[in-house]
Design brief:
Length: 122
Amino acid sequence: MKGSIMRERRRFLRLENNVPVKYSKALKSIDKEYFKEAGKGNIGGGGIKLALKEKLSLGTILILKIDLPSDSGPLPIFATGEVIWNKEVKEGKYESGIKFLKIKKKDRERIIHYVEKQVVSK
């Protein structure tokens, strides 16, 4: 599809963007230093695509920290997601599709609003 906007198969628009995202494999305890940076991908109300330096197994559960831009600066969103697909795009570079499992309703709505606002401004 041309442009940077994609329709997710189910219910939400997706937007190619540079929203900073950090991720960690879900463990019993999480240290903020354990979070890894993810490269740019796309985001929508149902999930996020991440560019990674490691291959994640299908079904891997992740803790996500998404620094969604706002008028007052980035406001972090924390969510839990599951790896539902992945592919190697070149040697040592991967893309993974993450479906949100647990995300606050207001945070999902913030993502949807952000994507819609970006679509309108394009």
